[in-house]
TrEMBL record:
Keywords: DNA-binding, Transcription, Transcription regulation. Pfam families: HTH_18. InterPro entries: Homeodomain-like_sf, HTH_AraC, HTH_AraC-typ_CS, Tscrpt_reg_AraC-type_HTH. The keyword Transcription regulation applies. This is Helix-turn-helix domain-containing protein. SUPFAM superfamilies: Homeodomain-like. The keyword Transcription applies. Residues 1-88 form the HTH araC/xylS-type domain. SMART domains: HTH_ARAC. GO terms for molecular function: DNA-binding transcription factor activity; sequence-specific DNA binding.
Length: 96
């Protein structure tokens, strides 16, 4: 939930930012930033399902400072907006 930078992680690994970035990409197939986005979107998805918090509350709680940017990233990753995702999941949950 807090900001985590490439610099911090590289320092923990005792590597330069560039070396860590290359190492991370080679071993995960994704950039460090893309990996963090995927982790955050996963946590946000769980919160959309398990809580009654608003999309804006969840957005800010998980480190996004701009709701329109958050909506764009979420839609790119999940194929629908957070609101649409929550509605779709709730309908499926009711049917089951």
């Amino acid at each position: 939930m807090r900001d985590l930078t490439l610099r911090e992680v590289a320092e923990l690994a005792n590597m330069s930012e560039g070396a860590f970035s290359r190492f991370f990409s080679q071993h995960t197939g994704r950039s460090f930033t893309e990996y963090l986005i995927d982790i955050r979107i996963g946590m946000v998805t769980r919160m959309l399902i398990d809580s009654n918090k608003t999309v804006a509350e969840i957005c800010f709680e998980y480190g996004y400072n701009n709701i329109s940017n958050f909506n764009r990233i979420f839609k790119k990753k999940k194929g629908r907006t957070p609101h649409e995702f929550r509605e779709m999941y709730c309908k499926k949950k009711t049917i089951v």
